[in-house]
Amino acid sequence: MTRADVQALDREDLFAPLRNAFEIPEGVIYLDGNSLGPMQGATRRHVADVVSQQWGEGLIRSWNTHDWIDLPTKIAGKIEGLIGVPKGTVAVCDSTSINLFKVLAAALHARPSRRVILSERNNFPTDLHIAQGLIDLLADGYELRTVATDELADAINDEVAVVLLTEVNYRTGRRLDMAELTRLAHAGGALTIWDLAHSAGAFKVELAAANVDFAVGCGYKFLNGGPGAPAFAYVAPQHIKDLRQPITGWFGHATPFNFVDDYAPAPSIERMRVGTPPILSLAALDSALDIFDGVDMLALRAKADRLFEIFSSVVVPECPELELVTPLAPNQRGSQIAFRFEEAYAGVQALIAQNVIGDFRTPDIMRFGLTPLYLSHEDVWQAAHVLVKVMRDRLWDQPAYRVRAKVV
């Protein structure tokens, strides 16, 4: 594919008008939105207003005058539309890890005769760590059982209480069949928890259609809510009434401002909340989500597939030392492309020095997010050619590029 070809695609790009909403430094091609989404100008201005006016001038009055108290519910409504669930089933609060702890504990409580949490062997570590920590805390014979991806279906049996999976693998970008694995879990009497960290905002998610029981996700990747943005948790309507989540803080109380001693959970999804909402970070997420208003998620995904095809068509033939680990079939991958390379960390550092920002995942993965809201087809074409140059000229082969930073 030539530069003229990709420029022709950009002239027809439905999302081209949204590019200017993002404040990406001049000359930088940003392929790391699947790790941290970039800032929007509207978000910067809104947070500045919340700091200077709502907090600075309104002070504590802003809980009412600027409706801080209902900001999590407002944001939840925006996320519900992105993940295909009914109103009143998403809580925006805490981090992905804390929300996972809550829904996993609730799911285990709902299956008291079973003791196995089933997950994928290469699931994101924090999901496995949370499960391990909860098992240690409960000290009641629970087991975390991990299997290879292709063994998941056969591993679901009458011992399994919960099937805990991430829809899109953080290293390879492989996408699991959510609907089918949920169906198999239910047929075996188990509940499901899906991690949407690399799904929400990347493509059309249909949790209700797949009959998912619980889900969690973060606000700082494809949703562009800023570093450490609040996360969200989904609970299917049939589970909300009897949901027993273990962190019973005052904002999950039925009447938090009555300040009563005994805990009584809210009758709604609000029982998933714990402590005082972090208004500044919520304000950033609230503003960032506005860009999805009117976005056709199927068209967004179609563009992501074109970006994948452009990147792979340039890199794969020219860089035999890079092993493509992301599935070629569009329905089997998320919005990223990843390669295995022995010197992956140095390769990514060399790219960053050329103003192409991707990221590294241990031990040997070079990973690139394909985020259609702000990446043009030409951006991706240029980035692919820079990667080819880095590999062809061995630009990665410098001692400085092998020195690991604290954050990789």
Automatic annotation (TrEMBL):
The UniProt record gives the binding positions of pyridoxal 5'-phosphate as 96-97, 124-127, 166, 195, 198, 220, 250, 276
Please verify whether the record's keywords include Hydrolase: yes
Q: Give a GO cellular-component term.
A: cytoplasm
**Catalytic activity reported:** L-kynurenine + H2O = anthranilate + L-alanine + H(+); 3-hydroxy-L-kynurenine + H2O = 3-hydroxyanthranilate + L-alanine + H(+)
Q: Which Pfam families match?
A: KYNU_C (PF22580)
What is the E.C. number? 3.7.1.3
Q: In which pathway does it act?
A: Cofactor biosynthesis; NAD(+) biosynthesis; quinolinate from L-kynurenine: step 2/3; Amino-acid degradation; L-kynurenine degradation; L-alanine and anthranilate from L-kynurenine: step 1/1
List keywords of the entry alphabetically: Hydrolase, Pyridine nucleotide biosynthesis, Pyridoxal phosphate
Source organism's superkingdom?
Answer: Bacteria
Gene Ontology molecular function terms on file: kynureninase activity; pyridoxal phosphate binding
Q: Which cofactors?
A: pyridoxal 5'-phosphate
Q: Name one GO biological process term.
A: NAD+ biosynthetic process
Database matches in SUPFAM superfamilies: PLP-dependent transferases
Query: Where are residues bearing N6-(pyridoxal phosphate)lysine located in the sequence?
Result: 221
Entry's family note: Belongs to the kynureninase family.
Subunit notes for this chain? Homodimer.
Primary role: Catalyzes the cleavage of L-kynurenine (L-Kyn) and L-3-hydroxykynurenine (L-3OHKyn) into anthranilic acid (AA) and 3-hydroxyanthranilic acid (3-OHAA), respectively.
The name on file for this protein is: Kynureninase
Q: What is the protein's species of origin?
A: Rhizobium setariae
